[in-house]
Amino acid sequence: MGQDKAAGLNKAAGLNKAAEPEELVVIGEITAPHGIRGEVRVRSWSDSPDRFRHLTDCRLIYADGREEACRISGAKRSRNFWVLKLAGVDNRNDAEERRGATLAVPRSRVGPLPPGHFYVFQVVGLRVVSEEGEVIGRVKEVLSLPAHDVYVVDGGAGREILIPAVKAVVTKIAPEEGVLIVKSLPGLWSD
């Protein structure tokens, strides 16, 4: 499953205010400064291995809702994260100010996936239904774990249901129909 996450925003991705707003998709998060020259460490939310290698611009989205256009002047892979050089961010203090910001691109720039693979933003919000037609809830989050992804489903009344994103459990994902169908397994969502 692709890991580009939905930003949940419907704001303009470009600088042209007259253009129709395009939904932004979050592709990573700045986790820390890297060194003293203004570079930042980015945790990728994308399965695309070269997502940041050729990225030249994006939007930074801060926890308080502010957005900032951002140019990327350099990118390199380092262990389990990316190191990005953001234009105009020239020292560790400037980089620290961006900690926690997410990087987003217009939805049109996320690229197609192979058949049977889906971006997280395509799965979040889907209605979860058993093969027998029982409505279980809605996908509210996707956890990316070492063994496999897990769908966090809002089962109503404050109940969270964790559904493993494996073929043995999930029989159909159909974003165009707004539904994710799962096998009925004892104890998975019922008491």
Can you give a write-up of this model?
A 6-stranded antiparallel barrel has the order 2-3-6-5-4-7. A 6-stranded mixed β-sheet has the order 11-10-9-8-13-12, with no helix packed on it. The protein is elongated and about 55 Å long. The protein is built from 2 helices and 13 strands; from the N terminus they run ββββββαβαββββββ. The protein folds into 2 domains: 5-109, Elongation Factor Tu (Ef-tu), domain 3, CATH 2.40.30; 124-182, SH3 type barrels. With 191 residues, it is mainly β.
Keyphrases for this structure?
SH3 type barrels, 6-stranded mixed beta sheet, Elongation Factor Tu (Ef-tu), domain 3, mainly beta, 191 residues, 5% helix, 6-stranded antiparallel beta barrel
What's the level 1 CATH class of the largest domain? Mainly Beta
Strand line-up of the largest beta sheet = 2-3-6-5-4-7
Shape: elongated
Helix and strand succession?
A: EEEEEEHEHEEEEEE
Here the CATH topology of the largest domain equals Elongation Factor Tu (Ef-tu), domain 3
Q: Would you identify the CATH H-level superfamily of the largest domain?
A: RimM
**Largest sheet at a glance?**
6 strands, antiparallel, barrel
Number of continuous helical runs: 2
Strand content: 35-45%
Overall tally of structural domains: 2
What Rg is obtained from the alpha carbons, in whole angstroms? 19 Å
Beta-strand segment tally: 13
Low-confidence stretches: 1-18
